[in-house]
Amino acid sequence: MYKIAVLGDRDSIYGFAALGLEVFPVAGPEEGARALRNLCEQEYAVVYITEALSAQLGPELERCRENLLPAVIPIPGVHSNTGMGIQMVKRSVEQAVGSDIIFNEK
Question: Does residue 44 contact residue 26 with C-beta atoms inside 8 Å?
């Protein structure tokens, strides 16, 4: 059975434990890269990652995205939100549909 993980700074992710998701607090980008690599090698269908951490893990995120699972999804955290999550959703929709149907920007 597939699992769902949440990766990021402690303050941003611990509320997800109350929902039954597995949380993996990390202190920095090196620890985050190791944790993400481990999660991508296990049976996780979805890995939510804070935007601040995902901004620091570019190459590791790209390696994970080469596989079908897990889906790595940036989420806003308590600090340093960049809007990366919505941009990634927009890019994925454009890739799947062929045009920007969310924002209708030219």
Answer: no
